[in-house]
Input
Amino acid sequence: MVRDTNKHFKFDWITIILFFLLVGFGWLNILSASHTGGDINYFDFSHPYGKQLLFIFLTFILIILLLAIDAKFYERFSSIIFIVSMLSLVGLFIFGKNVNGATSWYAIGGMTLQPSEFAKAATALAVAKHISDLNTNINSLKDQIQTFLIIIIPALLVLLQNDTGSTIVYGAFFFVLYREGLPKYYLSIGISVIILSVLALKFDALIASIVAAIVITGYHFMSKKKAPFFQLLFVLLLSILLSFGVKSFYDYILRPHQQDRISLWLRLEKDPVKLEAMKRTFAYNLNESEKAINSGGFNGKGFMEGTRTTGKFVPEQHTDYIFSTVGEEWGFLGCSFVVILFVLLLLRILHLAELQKSQFSRVYGYGVASIIFIHFLINIGMVMGLIPTIGIPLPLFSYGGSGLWAFTILIFIFIKLDSNKINEW
Amino acid sequence: MRQLLLFISIIFVGLLFIARLFYLQIYTSTEHNLFEDNAIRKVFDYPKRGFVYDRNGTLLVANQPSYDVMIIPREVEPLDTLEFCSLLKIDKKKFIKTYNKARRHSPRLPSVFLSHMSKEDYAVLQEKMRKFTGFYIQKRSLRHYQTTIGANVLGNIGEVNTNDQKKDPYYRMGDLKGKQGVEATYEKTLRGVKGIKFIQKDRFNRNIGPYKEGQLDTIPEQGKDITITIDANLQAYGELLMQNKRGGVIAIEPGTGEILTMVAAPTYDPSLLVGRDRSKNFTKLYNDTIAKPLFNRSLKGVYEPGSPFKLMNALIALQENVISDTEKVTCYQGYKYGNRFMKCHCNYGTRNDLVSGIQRSCNAYFATTYRKILDKHDNASIGIDNWSKHVKSFGLGNYLDNDLFVGARGRVPNRAYYKRIYPKTFYSTYTISNAIGQGEVATTPIQLANMIAAIANRGYYYTPHIIKSIENETLPEKYTKPKYTSIDREHFEPVIEGMFQVYKKGTAASLQVKDIDICGKTGTVENFAIIDSLKTQLTDHSIFVAYAPKDNPKIAIAVFVENGYWGSRFAGKIASLLIEKHIKGYITRKDLEDWILRHSLENEYAKPYSGEPFRINEHTRLQLVEEAEYKQLKQQVKNLQNPIN
Output
């Protein structure tokens, strides 16, 4: 690919434009969701929309800084960045501020900072650094364990702070590792476990076991390489054990409120009275969010004209549920636009990552795409009722300085690395 | 191929999301409707309901404020129930019951806790209201009747039911709507159009400001006042005269078709159907299946018209040129047809021409006449269709298509009607009872009054109507354009002369009123009822039709008194009195008035339900009204003559 070596155009402007489109459209929706009537004062920092405008302004400074730093810095200092980031997470146990049950914030003056947001970028750098190390062979169990450790440390730390959503995000690194040569059976095992669990819960453990048996038998007859019989039997036994294990876990170990979440997600609850009760309690947000999206129709009700948004029917709408504002006010057209912007951004980053000559840049780019993808999948999936309620923000869209800056860092480090690939022979 | 996993996942999730969006926003989405959006509170501003005036400008129906105590259950805080209950004049049991009912309905939405508080109770409660969080007072407007008359004319308003709401989405739960009478027919005129404010709510159901800065809000359109054609004074007099009787009285102004009086007896005070006791009283009236006070006898009571219908046969015969007014018919105390005999009150051998035939109400004369009409073309089938067509041109046998909320078709038979009973042969004698208004013909009092109005006008009528004027509106043409009957003008004179003679020396000679030339016709109709599954004859209905003055008609009237026996006994007296009242404004025939007020038919009405054998007509004795009640009625009549204002 011929790249313009002109200094001004060496950054990938497509990514940058997509980035700003999402940030800008996100802000419009934050404005609508957090506006409480009266005149709009853009510099009124008591309103989320005013604050977010300040955050966006500061983002420009951050971007200039990120792009000014030498590309080599990120690779060279990735370990230190990672360690500092982990320390900031550990520090939360001592200095952290508890918001909504999660101890994820540092309160500095009037501002709060959420180090777990930045930890994702740090981890992406660390993973890239580790995998791109010439001594690392992802097919060796030792290196696999080492890599897993890099990922599991931050995941565990945020989990201990009660931030389940951020923990799940670290699952994104599976895509990175798989791309870099993680054995295929990890993928097969992962997918099988998910399918079996869903089958066991949605239908029955017995049905899940039968399906597993049919698939294994089918595989045995279809594949040319005949696997040993006892090996198949072992896999089948594992599947059955898993199916019944998951079902028993759901029935006997999960507490009622956890069961409710899963039963709502898998539409297991048929009793309308109980469903109504759910909608009034833990599923309130989800129900209101779905209603808001549903009421938007094809065109939406128009910017600042959503009745449910104006009435603040969806709690936390400017943060995790921002997509429901898009749904109500911009309708199917607006929502599709946002989904397409995200898909384009992800594919662009993925494409750029594949073009990288250094493995570090490629792995890092993959990490960026994977992390954004998981956020995109979980947040929008949750708001539309496709995924159980997990509280994570929609990248670049949701209100919040830490989140915005963390994603800015994540993306612009990659843009910087990408711009530098011409020098990496 | 390892590069593809994330790539495919991204594409797949993107498509999955768009599919889900399609499902949520296009497939299951409905058009955004502000009225169904529960994020928008709709606050209605009810306009003043129009007033109702009588033809002389007397206010009949106005509005009164009413106060409802409303409750929003989840906002209720612990309160002194004892004090609250004593303020509302309820007991604690009722308090708990109503509270739970409201809570079941909705903890968030307002429900009516106690409706229609009196002004006095409201005044006391108002001051203490702030102590009771979660309760507030809602002002509504109820009807305030300035009179006790005309329940059947004025009608009433009541809360809409789900059916009303389905038919017209304008109505919301708790809205009031005209249910009967002019309130129902002129509902849209009287009610106006309510204003609406759209208010943005938040999820805690609090108001947070006008929706779209109130651009979509509307202001209420006031209801229009209406003036009805009823003469309240005459109506009140008519209702007094009909006390202790059952039946209907309709008086029409022939020159305009305006209904001067419309009495349905027994009646009730319209104020009974207002406010807190409405449903209780309505149920009581509704459940009275014997006296049927809610049944508007003057509009819906279908009776055989009896002798007054002879006028119709006379007119048709003249028009069809099958008789002349001088032609005489001999009455042999009845009329013999085939081997059957129709009795008559005339002396044996009386020779009647048209005028004396009407004057004496000779059955033989009209049986002959009726047969001549039907046999004109030697084919009774053609004859009866022709006859039927003439009758219908007077507005009989069908709805009048007017502004009265209820009505009945009555019945005017033709050949097709008789096909079932007489499929093949059909002779004029088969239906000879129609000659004297007793066969298959049936009419309502208003139809009969309209027939008399058409006779008074010598050949045309205006559709009888109740509306005189509406604020800033003109009446529809159907009330101002005459409708012509199929009888030529010149044929009316001999018939009118006959009716005049009824008063001069005929069956109503005793009912003459000084200085007024009244034309009338008595009627006595046999009637049968099914009692214990046996067809039983009851005392005849007393019927009278009249108009006056003879040459410049001002009032046409039809009176039906159930089981009143002969025509001039009850109905004739009432008709004469109302005519005098309308034309002179005062009563000279005090004797008639006293007689009517003093006599009751209640014992007559009780007979079939007594379970004992009873006798009818000439074997009955009239019941006198008790002295106290009689005095009271007299006083009421006196008050009418000297109106307090």
Observations:
- Residues 319 and 487 of chain B are 6 Å apart (CA to CA).
- The first helix of chain B runs from residue 4 to 27.
- The two ends of chain B are 104 Å apart (CA to CA).
